[in-house]
Amino acid sequence: MNYKLQSMTEKNNTPPQKILLVRTDRLGDVVLSTPAIKIIKDNFPSASISFLCQPSTREVLEGNPYLDEVIICDKYGKHRNIPGLCRLIWSIRRKKFDWAIILHPTNRVHIIAFLAGIPLRIGWDKKSAFLLTRKLPHLKHKGIKHESEYNLDILKELGLTITSPCFYFPNKESATQKVNLLLQKQKALSKKLVAVHPSASCASKRWPQIKFIRLIRLIKNDFPDVIIALLTSEKESQFADKIAEEKEILDLRGKLSIPEIGALLKKSILFISNDSGPVHISAALDTPVISIFGRNDPGISPRRWKPLGRDCFYLKEETGCQPCLAHNCTKNFLCLQTLTAERVYSLAKKIISSSSVETINSDTPL
After folding, report:
1. Arch. (CATH architecture) of 174-353
2. Exposure string for 191-210, b = 16+ CB within 10 A, e = fewer
3. What is d(CA 366, CA 357) in angstroms, rounded to the nearest whole number?
4. Where do the DSSP E strands lie in the chain?
5. What kind of fold does domain 9-157 have according to CATH?
6. Which residue in 86, 101, 313, 335 has its CB near the most CB atoms, within 10 A?
7. What's the mean pLDDT in 350-363?
């Protein structure tokens, strides 16, 4: 193989025929990247578009009408060692992509795109970025704009015409049928549903269980007919153990696939969650969402990670911690501790009581 840096396709003024989008981080990150797929297709209707992701996010992408192929990079499984990684690189190399658009920088994906011989490799100036043929200054840690806007910056650098971002989440009939059956068994199919997601990937993002319990009791007291559905992944179910002990809780922890979570959220009148991936699924499905934020560091703040869309809100307490130490916090996550259930309920009550909350400004914290 010839691994020398190759000239960019754009120098030949040849429209790309095969484009590889790359994002191998988490669920919400991939949901926020889905507008890029349609924008690329709008600019290059005849091009074949593939997406390289990790196994846990493939279901976000499968069924996307603007996507031709999903390729899996299983860095903790079959691609974790050099032989496995080489097999992945070789399989990508044989596809002869013209462009690799890398939305999130890692050493691994930069190496993959380089060794796969993709002529144009664009991404961020971080993590072995010398392997790229074109790069943008990496300023995401400053949190100047939303993550979805950073994704569009790469497309703008390529000269693409940018249309209004349209987030996509697949609507799978099999997932809808399973959720309907599940709700029917619980005699909840025709009732109002409020979904709650108290887990998150980091302790600095997890509002205390006792506050979720207080919130649920407030909801049930004023809206006794509302069904509370409790969601977490299987490995994060312990973060909701105490909540699951509450009366009349529909405990769905670890029981739903990603498409099934989407089907449940589509049926919900409200989703209340910590800052996590399902927040962005809810936003993509136009289900009202309240996202609870704690951390004050610009790169992990609501400015960069809040849910986007109609009836999307976030709540956050300003505690004046400078600098924010995030998961290394020495103040027992004061920002989360000081956010009261009553404040969250005040907003939740408005949403539950009304079929529309257009009068509330969703671009600012409440």
Report:
1. 3-Layer(aba) Sandwich (3.40)
2. eebbbbbbbbbeebbbbbbe
3. 13
4. 18-22, 48-53, 69-72, 99-102, 120-124, 134-136, 193-197, 227-230, 249-251, 270-274, 289-292, 312-315
5. Rossmann fold (3.40.50)
6. 101
7. 59
